[in-house]
Amino acid sequence: MPHEPPGSDGILIVEDNAVNALILRTMLQKQGYEPHVARDGHEGVAMSARHRPRLVLMDLHMPRLDGFAAAIAIREIHGASPVLVAVTATATRDVEVACEEAGFTCVLPKPVLIHDLMDVVRRYLG
Q1: Which residues, including other chains, have CB under 8 Å from residue 80's CB and lie 6 or more apart?
Q2: Which of 29, 42, 62, 84 has its CA 20 to 30 A from that of 70?
Q3: The domain defined by 11-125 carries CATH number 3.30.1360.30
Q4: Can you give the pTM of this predicted structure?
Q5: Contact predicate 39/13, CB 8 Å
Q6: Residue 42 and residue 83: Cα distance in Å, rounded?
Q7: 3-state DSSP assignment of residue 56
Q8: How far apart are CA 109 and CA 86, in angstroms?
């Protein structure tokens, strides 16, 4: 299975909770990925423009710019790429619909399980 080489810009994590960001980053690092981490939606939009990731894992509820607004901004900058994955503890049908409308590709429920995370990564990064 091909992995992004160390230090590559393949994955961006946008998560305001430091523990959640660390957990996602550690899970990905154990699989050979080196994701970038943004602390909120505003920083996530800026980092997506700078690093042009192929996959963005984004929390929905963040200060300054929430995940919905950040997804819309990223879509305005990049169009259909990158793949946007909402990472949320509120994975209800209403939230899934709102995510689709904002440009997310899919929703990954919290707490994130390594198996589910890697299924999403493999599906969209190959």
Answers
A1: none
A2: 29
A3: no
A4: 0.92
A5: no
A6: 18
A7: strand
A8: 8
Residues linked to residue 106 through DSSP beta bridges, in sequence order: 85
Report yes or no: 12 and 46 within 8 Å, Cβ to Cβ.
no
Alpha carbon distance 126, 84 (integer Å): 15
Q: Render pLDDT for 12-35 as a digit per residue (tens, 0 to 9).
A: 999 999 999 999 999 999 999 999
**b/e map of 50-73 (b: 16 or more CB within 10 Å)?**
ebebbbbbbbbebeebbbbbbbbb
| Sequence-separated (6 or more) residues with CB below 8 Å from residue 48 | 12, 56, 74, 77, 78, 82
Tokens of 41: 């939606």
In the chain, domain spans: 11-125
Euclidean distance between CA atoms 11 and 114, whole angstroms? 15
